[in-house]
Amino acid sequence: MKSVKCKRANSRNGKKWLVAAVFRTSAISLALMSMQQGAFAQTSPVSFNIPAGSLSGAIAEFGRQSGVQVSYPPEFAAGKQSAGVKGAVSSEAALGRILQGSGLSYQFVNSDSVTLVNGGAAANTSASASAADDSLLLGTITVTSRAGSDPADAPWQGASSRAHLSAEQVERFSGTSVGDFLSGIPGVLNGDGRNSGAVDVNIRGLQGQGRVPVLVDGASQETTVYQGYNGSTARTYIDPDFIGSVDIEKGASMGADSTGAVGGIVRMSTIGVKDILLPGHDFGVRLKGNFNTNSRSAPSPGTTGGLTNLGTYYSWDEFPSGFGDSSGTNRPSALKPTGGSGSIAIAGTTDAVDVLAAYAQRYNGNYFAGKRGGDDAHAVISGPTGPFGEVNVTDGNPLTAYRAGEEVLNTSRDTESWLLKGTFRFQDNQKFELGYSRYMTRYGNILGSQLMSYFNSQPYQGLLSTIDLATWTGRYSWKPEDSNLIDIKVDTFYSDVDNRVNSVFNSSGTLYPQYFWLASNRWGGNASNTSRFYSDIADVTWQYGGSFTRENVGLPDGVDEATMSGSRFGWRKEYSGFSTLEVKPLDWVTLSGNLRYSTFESFDRSPTLESPFTRKDHGWSPIFSLMVEPLDGFQAYGKYGSVLRSPSIFESITGPSFSVPTADNPVAPERNKSLEFGVNYLMDGVFLPDDKLRFHGAWFSNHIDNYITRGNIKRYTASGRENYQLGRMNLDYAEMRGIELSAQYDSGRVFGSVAWNHYTDIMFCAKDGVIHPAASRCAPGGLYNSFAQQQVPPKDTVTVNLGSRFLDSDLTVGTRISYIGSRFVEGLGADEGLGQVSGMYSIAPSDWKPYTLVDLYASYKLNQNATFDLSVDNLTDRYYVDALNTIPIPAPGRTVRGGVTLKF
User: Fold this and answer.
1) Whole-angstrom distance, CA of residue 160 vs CA of residue 680
2) What gap in Å lies between CA 496 and CA 516, rounded to an integer?
């Protein structure tokens, strides 16, 4: 949101120049910033809807709608009215109409500001001399061209930590798996992306079960997949070709759609008409074609990989000539296309209607691991020793069972997607959007427990699993041109998921299918209205509304409950109402408060229960923030949240991940008491007339009371004997603290960015007397047999992106270097008692070693009709295992990706 800047007193002005001295110590930078006088007068037309009313309110709306920041002493506008302005006009013309009859006029000061003079005789001309007189500035209204109106600038302003990804960035870093486009964002990781073709976002150590909702056009469709002894994972699906933008908010959110979002929220928007049409056209077609290397079609189920012939050999044994099937390492040539995608999108627009239809198909076989790094499985031969010539062949204690450069089984995907969208514009600035999307995929999948050493250390190809997801969305907005009190937004959705996980257990070469099928439908929505009040005392924005969701789980249509064991049956619904108040008593101070009340209910109708079980709970979630902006472009803020998350449907319904029924083991909601302090710096024209400098830094703390997970909890038999069974539990607390820093510079010709996230503290603590006394009550790596063991992030992540533009910016080339440090602690980070060893018929903590990846990318815009892209992922062909892996498999090795986008 754009704001109104008011220079009110000499002390205020002195404070601004004191802070300015810190950030602009060079007289050269000040000179460079004054090189472009008259830029404001050359702005292109903007569509204004500013109703008649008080002059102060009209100026405030002008600042909000134009992206121009306005400063003035309140007495200039006191008691004055404005006729407002409507229509597409330049910012200069709009300002003139707003001021008409007020006795105020403007003068240019420099490239970034104009000065309003209290007197109609003043000419609207250059008056840079007036800027030299500090006292004169105090008696004028300064309209400053404000950086940050671009959505890409959202991460660098406001009282929170954010990230924004454009469609171009998603395409550039889309990688091999769907969630790869999330890499490089400080504090954000994707979990278990190699085994699912899905997104499971971790923000600042919080993940799964609605802690970080992932919304696509306002719709939620998260499902939770059973991973055998190795836990469970949450999954959300989308085709990268259909992503128009991604906005990520970290920590507590005041949004209408953020009920239960204790960790943050991810909002994805699908492509729209503007993404397809050429400038000035009302009909267009976009064709995209892409290829990738480093893969091949999945083999038949039961095909094995990894090392073979391990063991002990004596002098009379025939020593093997090899230690693995050579076909598994028969990697295609570096530039041979082995997979790819294609899509077509057709769009049209009129004054009243926008229509878009798109189809995409994507195929990639099993990818191959990298060759370098030394963390692969390889034969280690020792001996001969002893009187019998004993020779031992071991695997070198690798991270995974796969060899360097080997085909990684169960990583293929074959996807078809459809998207239909229609937007209808009505009188009085009303808009209604309808959307439908379909996502169908056959993908490789294997239960996490089936690659554990106690089952079979040798990997094997399983059956392909399927997803069939259909989503309907409806979005409505209404903002009358003549009212600041009405700004209504309504989002509704319905999603239907048919998720069929087809697993197979390999016992000495015999395959035993295991099916974990789940059908889920979810529907709901949120509605809000925003009212804005402008006065000489303060500017106030009040948003209020509510939301509702309901989710049902069971089996897909036509599947008999008797033939499918371990499924979940029941429903969950949640209501919430909220109110958010933003107050600006001074132009450089913003106070915000949000209060949300939510209530949830779940119904468990598992056939294993004697009778259905209903569970209810409710609570309040307050959030407060204070932000000050003592210098244009520099902000400092503090934010506190106490956000409630009620148990998810997975945590509320009896299922295979828990041996204790929900009725005997309900859990209370968890509450994240979060705290964040941060600074933003956003400025254009710092060293060069058209350059951009951005900076964000934050310290964050999550303290989650009653954190919900699972563990071996104390139970009693009918005879009163104490035992420990796998059940849900509320921890005493979980906490994650750390810092994140990010900076970005763009001169037009060259650009670069750096991002660093560092955790200082992570801890999970159970309540007294709940878990086995041999297990550690507190552990930084997650408690024994808890889901948290697979959600502990790296202690450090660093990403550096450097690039340059050539040929009038038609050619862009760059490189990205990413460092992923070691897990915050190895294993649990605490003593493991007798019978409480992680990974032995229990969840194994995610395990990886630090790795550094180098990616290259290039994009060439031949003309407005054709763009070519080329990328090399993992240039050094590093063998590595992703952070937050649930399945111990290596990530893709060096992969070349290329594509062309055509518009006509």
Assistant:
1) 10
2) 17
